[in-house]
Amino acid sequence: MASPNAPDDGPRSSLQPILKELCDAIEGCAGVPAALRVLRDAPALPEGWFEEDDGRVGLRLALEHTGWSAEIVFRERTDLRLTPDRRVPVEAMMPLVKRVLSAEIETRRLQHQVSMLHSDNATLLRRTRLDHMTGLLNGTSFHRTAHRLVERVERPRHVALLLIDVDDFKVVNDTFGHAFGDRYIRLMARTLRGICRAGDPVGRIGGDEFAVLLCDIPEDEAWVARTVRRIQTSFMTATHAMEPRCRGAASIGAHCFAAPGPAYADVFRLADAALYREKAMKNSRSVPRAM
């Protein structure tokens, strides 16, 4: 039975099927069991027939322009020898074996490079679209996504834009340190991502400012108000669990509307006005702060 061997080396491990096919063909010509393997960066040894220390006979091939070589080792037995007349057809098919292996290795090398390029491009795209600290959309990406969902819809939908401002973030930062402040911001990101649905864009649009676009929601402002309270309550609970002396608070401005309809810039302006009314109301009522 053929015993092909190839190193488990990323895309090169997929050489196994072609190695088996070639090995079967070589065995058919030789009439002797054989093992075929490919070697990368092997020492520069001469092509041709060789004999191993245990007496087994082999044939070495240099695979041009690849940096690889191939070795075929024949498993002779007392009653089954690789006689000179059996070597002739084996030698005759070696140019074909070399061309096939060289082409397969080069194909897989190119496939590996293409895969790496796709991976690098995906990484670059993530870095340009996402906020590095929270993994949410950055400001540019959020606004672009929200603009498309608001103004380029194919069917009517009810939507709400939420603008979230973490209260007293400078006080939190100054009191507990910048490392804690970073954790505080990431906690708000996790809170938003945990409450919002997978298809709702969530972004960090400023240092302590976030935005959420709730799409395809009930035509009910009370539903949006409940979602706002859930965000505020969850954030307060999570921050208190992280640091008992801290009670995280956030001001949230919301604007509900039907899309397609108003321009995204107008929607953002109205949600921003709602946010500042919320902050002004907190200040006038002396609402307890984050500390």
From TrEMBL:
InterPro entries: Diguanylate_Cyclase (IPR050469), GGDEF_dom (IPR000160), Nucleotide_cyclase (IPR029787), Rev_trsase/Diguanyl_cyclase (IPR043128). It comes from the Bacteria. Residues 157-290 form the GGDEF domain. It catalyses: 2 GTP = 3',3'-c-di-GMP + 2 diphosphate. One of its GO terms (cellular component) is plasma membrane. Its EC number is 2.7.7.65. GO terms for molecular function: diguanylate cyclase activity. One of its GO terms (biological process) is cell adhesion involved in single-species biofilm formation. It holds the Pfam family GGDEF. It is an enzyme of class 2 (transferase). This is diguanylate cyclase.
